Amino acid sequence: MIATRRWIAPLAALLVLTSCGYDATRVPEPDAAPTQPGAAGEPVECDNPLASYSPSGDAEAARAQLINEGRLVVGVSADTFQMGWSNPIENGVIKGFDIDVARDIAEALGVRLQLRVISAADRVSLLQAGEIDLVARNMTVNCDRWSKIGFSAVYYNATQKVLVRADDAEAFEREGVTSLAGKKVCAPRGSTSIDNITEIQPDAEAVAATNHTGCLVKFQQGEVDAITGDDTVLAGLAAQDPYAVVPEQDKLTDEPYGIGVNADDIALIRFVNSVLADRVSTGEWKRSYDTWLKPYLGVDVKAPTPDHSR
């Protein structure tokens, strides 16, 4: 019975993504030279990965670092429910918490916003190749990524957890990740989630999918036993499948989200940080959280305190 449970809804969402007219993600050629981190190819210091640059309202300097004049190209998800997702009822319009952030940055810059649907695995490579200006795709800030790209200040604090079938929830609540030994756990390829679960529970079999929708399809078809990812993402998956639950559990890791930017585009990073600060001071951050995430996470949270000490 598990192998035939409702996979039609997420599959339909995938079909919408292939027909809504967004640019296809083109992976850079393997021999393309990546952008070196730092202003002159110097390594990026990472004593504190949460630290970004001080905010600046200099829109002109930020616009000068855009790939295309008058246009901000932002890599986003279109299948992460409530963060960046496409609603077939609304002609494939992408919306969500991350999309609100991208929209506000484009408006503050005074340029047109172009959303480009990308996979988690392509976030860094597309920035390095100069194909997109920003990534607003629930991207965790860490030192390894700082060595390749730059980041805004943290704009949301997520945590990594595990989603299981309702029948397995009691065992998971009792035993935690120990109960995953010998089981197949899915996470997107190129995500911190798949690295973390491999380290935290090496006795589980990590299964990679292109994205979390792919994990949900595998879960509903009985190919995997659990899905791991950020609590924001898992709440959206559980909302789509009544047989899937996120049991009460301790967080596996902290997953602070930042906007990804090319390492050399420091003026753009500074401007993004000014927009993020404005979203908090004007109440836009809370309005967006209350709209997209609170109904599924069920808790009130505060915006992160930014660190601008880089």
Instruction: Report the top-level CATH class of the largest domain.
Output: Alpha Beta
Mean pLDDT: 86
Largest β-sheet summary: 6 strands, mixed
Give the class from helix and strand content and strand pairing: alpha/beta
- Residues in helix, %: 25-40%
Low-confidence stretches are 1-43
Number of strands: 14
Q: Gap between N and C termini, in Å?
A: 53 Å
Q: Total domains, how many? A: 2
CATH architecture of the largest domain: 3-Layer(aba) Sandwich
User: What name does the CATH topology of the largest domain carry?
Assistant: D-Maltodextrin-Binding Protein, domain 2
CATH superfamily of the largest domain: Periplasmic binding protein-like II
Gyration radius, rounded: 19 Å
> Count of helices?
12
Query: What is the molecular shape?
Result: globular
What does this structure look like?
Helix content is 34%, strand content 19%. By secondary structure, the protein is α/β, with parallel strands linked by helices. It folds into 2 domains: 2-7 and 158-254, D-Maltodextrin-Binding Protein, domain 2; 46-156 and 257-297, 3-Layer(aba) Sandwich (D-Maltodextrin-Binding Protein, domain 2), CATH 3.40.190. Strands 8, 9, 10, 11, 12 and 13 form a 6-stranded mixed beta sheet that branches. Strands 5-1-6-14-7 form a 5-stranded mixed beta sheet. The protein has a 3-stranded antiparallel beta sheet with strand order 2-3-4. Strand 3 and strand 4 form a beta hairpin. The termini are far apart. The model is unreliable at 1-43 (pLDDT under 50). Belongs to the bacterial solute-binding protein 3 family.
